[in-house]
Amino acid sequence: MWMESAAWTPSTAWKRGARELTQADLVLYFGDRAALADPRRHAELRDMHPQAILLGCSTGGQILGDDVSDDTIAAVALKFAATPLRLAVHDITDTNASHACGQALGARLAAPHDGGEALSAVFVLSDGLQVNGTALVAGLCSAVGRHVRVSGGMAGDGALFQQTLVGANCAPCGGRVAALGLYGRAVQVASGSAGGWDVFGVRRRITNASGSTLFELDGEPALDLYERYLGPEEAEALPGSALFYPLKICDPDRPEHDIVRTVLTVDRERRSMTFAGDMPAGWLAQLMRGTHHRLVAGAREAGRQASAVTEPVAGLPAPGASGNDRLAILISCIGRRLLMGQRVADEIEAAAMGLGAGTQRIGFYSYGEMAPHAQSGFCELHNQTMTITTLSEVH
Fold this sequence. Notes:
Elements: E1 2-9, E2 13-16, E3 26-31, H1 33-37, H2 39-48, E4 53-58, E5 62-64, E6 67-69, E7 73-79, E8 85-91, H3 98-110, E9 119-126, H4 133-144, E10 149-154, E11 166-168, E12 176-183, E13 187-194, E14 198-199, E15 204-210, E16 213-217, E17 220-221, H5 222-230, H6 232-236, E18 247-250, E19 258-261, E20 263-267, E21 272-275, E22 284-289, H7 292-306, E23 326-333, H8 334-340, H9 345-355, E24 359-366, E25 368-372, E26 379-382, E27 386-393
Parallel strand pairs: 3-4, 9-10, 23-24
Antiparallel strand pairs: 1-2, 1-7, 3-7, 4-11, 5-6, 5-24, 8-12, 9-12, 10-25, 13-27, 14-22, 15-16, 15-22, 16-17, 16-21, 18-19, 18-22, 20-21, 23-27, 25-26
Helix pairs in contact: 3-4, 7-9
């Protein structure tokens, strides 16, 4: 596998790396919503890479190498030696259709590629506001099977939460979910995920919820309790202020299998809160808060997990160094970025330390992260988490 990175800024337009990769198979790109809304950016990428699958989304900040930037677009072009690709796209207008959307995408990817290669991994980019990420992942995994590694993220819009865009061989638009299938035995995919948030306050039970909307905790309106903990100033700033105080939820029968959830919207009249993923009734919930040190440590742990080398495929040699680049796709939560502020690059550097030398990095800040859970090994939607997917090939 070979790669070339590129970046677009309003002042310099596109600046490409020295490699000038030709005949790329795939271009991943992540950018500011306003920049991606201009159809010229997609047209320029298509001119640079006429044969490639173009897959990208809007973000809460772009990651390229050690840098985090706004008002820009970060891109990487990939040329695979022996990994066929297939792109599946589905548009969605109803959050309740998220599971069916995932199933439809999975069904299109599950069949072997034209050459007979089996599906090995799926990378997903989803609209960040119109999709229930939990249901999307569940539907997708039900179609492709638990043996296929699934990862990805939900598009962002900074701290605005107004509109998110996904591009899949077309100019980016809202309401779109795209899934990329990678096929065959040559592709090597690993992943890691970690948070670093600390719990505080009373553990409460979810007593009334529907899908991703939380109505009551311990029989009280959820928004009332949240506002009580946050205080008047931060309560007035909801939902943005909730990014600093996510909820840890867990099944009481499996308390070690916890998941972090973050607020997307609040309904002050109904006193409810809508999260990026499901809030199952009967589960336990507890507020969380983060510190810079703990979040940075979480990013390093995610890198360490993703740096684990996949066992060589039987009959094929171990990955070589020459002509075998390794890419890490970092997807972190917008809440983490807002909390760390100008020191956000610290978590990118920490993730790089965990990954080790020789791995190129691209990524974005999201409204939800998809990666295998450390306990189960199966893909789930995470919030407020650093997730990392690494790609390479054996040859």
